[in-house]
Please model this.
Amino acid sequence: MIWNEEIETMPRQDLEELQLKKLQATVKRAFNEIPYYNKKYSEAEVYPEDIECLNDIQKLPFITKDDLRESYPFGLFAVDMSKIKELHSSSGTTGKPVVSGYTEKDLDTWAETIARGLSMMGIGENDILQNTHGYGMFTGGFGVHYGSHKVGAAIIPISTGQTRRQIEIMQDFGTTGLIFTPSYGIHLGEIALEDGIDPKTLGIKAIGFGAEMWTEEIRQRVEEIFGAKAYNIYGLTELMGPGVGVECIEQKGLHIAEDIYYPEIIDPNTLENLGPNQKGELVLTNLQREGMPVIRFRTKDLTKLTYEKCGCGRTHARMSRITGRSDDMIKVKGVAIFPSQIEKALLRIGDVEPHYLIIVTRPGTLDEIEVKVEASQNLFFDGVKDMMAITDKIGKSIENETGIRVKVTLVEPKSLPRFEGKAKRVIDERDLH
Model:
């Protein structure tokens, strides 16, 4: 089911003409209405009239999270405060939070992107969608909420936590669609099984998930648990929230709503633009945002774009699953490692659960990595010999994946913390300042 057929299946040439028109208008408005852009572009000696074709976007300077923090709280708003109808912000764990402001029209645009995504997942007016994403300042809950209203589905705004209540509501209300982070989805499934409920019998037909790193193996685990397809949703507070990209039934990358967000891929080191199917850092530009247009935002997310028409009929670019961040990698012994690599290595091994913690320390002058992994219930009763063999196997698998040796510690089932929001997988205890 395609929500907005005219836009989502638009021939590439027409789409690019539309993007250029919107880009020119956005740059002009940002330059005229927001002192930050006026100053930044004037210093770079680039002006709205210099944007004559889409490639000219490369003349514009990038914007980063630091720029957004420096403009805290409302320095990047392009409209008077009386026009702003909603405010959200990031968690601000590394300094001032990033604030996002929305006009009435922006909220509708946001709902439109999620409506397209829910349609890709097969969610429509006959569905009941249970949204376990957090409501509040986090954008996850509300984005899904507005999109669900737009497609006509009934939404259960249950938010995070109360896991057993979540399962009870699925049973009692006849939930057909679920939204969660992958780690919380697996946790939900575990609790249901613990209580003698097979999640496959709950009647879930589609799952939307995102907000944290995951691997293909994790997706398979989620799909096995619930007996339903799980679709990746991508978004970020800075640009609007979830809905920037969503997977369709083909599950071959996330369709970016290209009439609303303009995507680029750059080399994070040289900052040069890369071509289709080349992996680099995703840069995004709002093309249709009134309240707070963000132009050439460096997401730090590593991915690649393909522009080939999808089997579902949509023509918009698809981004591959995020495989890491250009900044959340752990540098150990000079080697860049992403938690997703360790997750991948773990999930190749049977007898362990997809719950793990990476602890990085520097007891002397050398870095050490310990990976704590939950053993499966069966393995835990199988004795020391089996556990040593599995530990050894995991160590080798991680070394194959990352090129470095780590200490592997098997821990009891359910002994590692569970996260209802984003899973915190890495504890870096080194003093790197």
Observations:
- The first helix runs from residue 5 to 8.
